[in-house]
Amino acid sequence: MRETMTMNMKQAISNVLELMFFLPVQFVENECPVREWLPRSQVYTGATLGFSGPVSGSYYLLIPVAMAKEITANFLGLSEEEVNEAQESDTVKEALNMIGGHMLSLVDKPDGYQLGIPEIISEAGFDMNADTGKKENVIYIEAEGNHLAAGIILN
User: Fold this and answer.
1) Regarding the domain with residue range 2-154, which homologous superfamily does it belong to in the CATH classification?
2) Which of 69, 91, 106, 138 has its CA 20 to 30 A from that of 62?
3) 80 CB contacts (<8 Å, ≥6 apart)?
């Protein structure tokens, strides 16, 4: 089930980021911890979103702050100079909400799932060193020379 969810999430990430935010992505097969994938030279923001149903858990998306500004401008049809932090946060949450909804639409019985409300996380609030003891699939993404990460954590 985790592998199917990961495959569906990759498809959803690709569709949503490319079509809605004009951000072409490539997936990278990688076994390193998230903390090694995301360069310390960049500041990251992200969102998390819980889901429940036949399988319950949460999704997350970590993205460089500079890229959050870019996708917000693309999504809202503004210049990057016109984008404020609240709009960036809302866009990151909406991106994950769209990814999660699209991912669940690809499962056998999408009506059996419910999405929670996306919440902003930051690098400081997301412990990349933690071993949660839960089953986690990490998706490593490259976009425009930047590293992003997404994941599914099953309860």
Assistant:
1) CheC-like (3.40.1550.10)
2) 106
3) 69, 70, 73
